[in-house]
Design a protein that fits this description.
By secondary structure, this protein is mainly α. The protein has two domains: 74-112, no CATH class; 125-352, MetI-like fold, CATH 1.10.3720.10. The chain has 15 helices and five strands. Helix 5 (125-160) runs antiparallel to helix 6 (165-179), helix 13 (300-306) crosses helix 14 and helix 14 runs antiparallel to helix 15. It starts with a helix and ends in a 7-residue tail after the last helix.
Length: 359
């Protein structure tokens, strides 16, 4: 187990380093000057140069890259003579840190990663992510729970009623759900359930977890706004889970130990729940964990259509405004989430299947 975790962590760090490098290069070769976006196209040269200096954009690209790595790394090298350049040493922006050791004018410190500030709002990118991420996490979790419960139940009945009417309808609908683009499904679902049938459903076409009261009494929790985006986001993993559960269960039911269990006189319900389902769910669990990570990363279109104030809306707004620190910060954050979920998936898969060894 320790060797497996170390190996996976090293692999994850390598992937993260590649993502960091790619993101930095990509957003530093794109057209657009952050200084002019902040000041307007009529800004004078001196003001533009001052913004460049403040943001560190006047330095060579390699220096910018090293400074970026230094900011986002938990272990950073800092110059003791310029404490004002470091956010954690500034008394007005104090954040806990641990000085590991110093050599002359240089210190090695342990700190929280710094994702810098938004060009447009001047807010810390970490604060923007902390505000938006819980909404995306809630949306992805509800979508995945809905897809898993319904998908496993439908998949079991499809396997037990193989080639029947229920099985054929379930297969058609699952293929349709897997092939339907999320943005198209979001528009159709919003139009049908929140426009055509709004008198019966009482649902809104747009809305986030908190809704502003029309009478000026502040914000209130509106869980009904979660229904349509969760349904939309869960359609594709639902189709995958139905297919995987059906095919995996059919394969398990053909094994010798299942025939032995039936020959001992065990009821079909006991055979399915105690013997077949556990082994049949291994590929399903792998798919669920992978899809859960993908849902958090790929909820951009769904959140944008339903105006769900999560990471997706933050990314779209930042792209429209060329707010590179916000885009880079959210991409790196999502990458870390994906790496962590992949490691947990491997561990879960090994725990469910004794034949798999963590090596």
């Amino acid at each position: 187990m320790p060797g497996f975790l170390i190996k996976r962590l090293l692999y994850g760090l390598l992937v993260l380093f590649g993502v960091i490098t790619l993101v930095f290069i990509l957003f530093n070769i794109l057209p657009g000057d952050p200084a002019r976006m902040m000041l307007g196209q009529r800004a004078d040269i001196s003001s533009v140069e001052a913004i460049h200096k403040d943001l560190g954009l006047d330095k060579p690209l390699m220096t910018q890259y090293l400074n970026f790595l230094n900011d986002i790394s938990p272990v950073s090298v800092h110059n003791n003579q310029n404490p004002e350049n470091y956010w954690y040493l500034n008394p007005e922006k104090y954040s806990p840190y641990l000085k590991l050791f110093s050599i002359k004018k240089t210190s090695l410190v342990l700190k929280m990663p710094y994702l810098r500030k938004s060009y447009q709002t001047k807010r810390e990118v970490a604060a923007i992510i902390a505000e938006a991420f819980p909404k995306t996490l809630l949306l992805a979790a509800v979508s995945m729970i809905f897809a898993f419960i319904i998908g496993v139940i439908v998949g079991i009945f499809s396997a037990l009623k193989k080639d029947g009417i229920f099985d054929q309808v379930a297969l058609v609908l699952s293929v349709l759900g897997m092939s339907l683009p999320s943005f198209f499904a979001a528009i159709i679902i919003a139009w049908v359930f929140a426009f055509l049938l709004s008198d019966y459903t009482g649902l809104n076409m747009t809305g986030s977890l908190q809704t502003v009261d029309d009478f000026g009494r502040g914000e209130y929790l509106s869980l009904k706004n979660l229904i349509l985006p969760a349904l939309t986001l869960g359609i594709r993993p639902l189709g995958v889970i139905v297919e995987l559960t059906r095919s995996s269960l059919l394969d398990v039911l053909s094994q010798d130990y299942i025939r032995t269990a039936r020959a001992k006189g065990l009821s079909e319900f006991r055979v399915i729940t105690r013997h077949a389902l556990k082994n049949a769910l291994n590929p399903v669990v792998t798919a669920v964990s992978g899809w859960f990570a993908s849902l958090m990363a790929g909820a951009v279109f769904v959140e944008y259509v339903f105006d769900w104030k999560g990471i997706g809306v933050v990314i779209v707004d930042a792209l429209e405004k060329y707010d590179f620190p916000v885009i880079m910060g959210t991409v790196l954050f999502i990458s870390v989430i994906l790496i962590i979920i992949n490691i947990l998936t491997d561990i879960t898969y090994a725990l469910l299947d004794p034949r798999v060894r963590l090596e």
